[in-house]
Specification:
By secondary structure, the chain is an alpha/beta fold. The protein has two domains: about 15-55 and about 95-205, Rossmann fold (3-Layer(aba) Sandwich), CATH 3.40.50.1100; about 60-90 and about 210-400, Rossmann fold, CATH 3.40.50.1100. About 45% of the residues lie in helices and about 15% in strands. It is built from 16 helices and 14 strands. It has a six-stranded mixed β-sheet with strand order 3-4-14-9-10-13, sandwiched between helices. α6 (about 120-130) packs parallel to α8 (about 150-155) and α14 (about 335-350) packs across α15 (about 355-370). The radius of gyration is 19 Å and the shape is globular.
Length: about 400
Amino acid sequence: MKSYFKQFPDKEGFFGKYGGSFLPPDLQVEVDKITDAYFTISKSHNFISELRSIRKHFQGRPTPVYYCNKLSEMTGGRIYLKREDLNHSGAHKLNHCMGEALLARYMGKKKLIAETGAGQHGVALATAAAYFGLECEIHMGEVDIEKEHPNVVRMQILGATVVPVTHGLKTLKEAVDSAFEAYLADPVTTIYCIGSVVGPHPFPMMVRDFQRVVGIEARAQYTEMTGELPDNVVACVGGGSNAAGIFSAFLDEEDCTLWGVEPGGVSEKVGDHAATMSYGVSDGLIHGFKCYNLQDDKGEPLPVYSVASGLDYPGVGPEHSMLKDTQKVNYVVATDAEAIDAFYTLSRKEGIIPALESAHAVACALQLAKENPRQSILVNLSGRGDKDIDFVVNKYGLPENRKM
């Protein structure tokens, strides 16, 4: 029997009925070249050796697993963090950006193009471009540029051109639209480095494969620390790259429950959340692939919102869509309020300031620990919160000035 990773995706890039590639014929030709190049070099000893060296000597991998003493005491559970916030550039995003940039160099590309929401993918890609000596262009919504100003400055310092996106809601979905348009203008010398497990085949597969390092490390580290596997594994889900990475090591473990935490925003009303699978009931096409998404009767994406800029996307990775249908992963929500409380709780109790995206996963873990005090919980802390501190303090105030 084929292993899970040999079965999914299939040759056409489908995870069950989700995924695929729905692109104009001319663009499909260029994307097929990316697919061929990926399958050629991903099995190459030279590529694998260089990527491993980069991860060890440049990124600082492996990132540690950390036991949260105070959080565990407070909740009665046993909470562990996979510290992707300690990965170079401050999040898990560099794991696939270095792989995508290495692929671009192999293909003779001159320029990397991408979208970003919270700015973590943009910073990671700008870092990769600087490392490999490539040009870099990052498209970012004006709303997110204002919210995530520190990451905008980091991208510019690293040499990237940041393109403000001024149409629509001026957030992540519009940034993807804009980046796709820029890529369409010159797919020969540029490569679109998608920031999550979304988009047309082969991008959901490639990003997942590059992010599998998180799950491989976490499983080995947790087992070494405890002698067993965790009862629960938790990760936030926007597009779903960090979740795909850590879940990959535990998909076949019946005794390990997987939790994908979507952004519940401020209510279940359209435009107040970005909980694609929890509050959306339809599947359709978005950005060249099929997935669960939030759309109207005409198939157009609905407005979405989250306090975390990296989570406010109206679609989700096709693999997550399949995992929801097969019930291998439980998809739940954390609201803005719960994420902000988790942000401050982790900061004050453990001295770790999480990204607002990651705070959604921490919020779920805190709840699980209170409900199941004898169980262990491994959280993928996908990024650090430096980028969010000004926004959070300005909007919500410091902990001593608010109810915790």
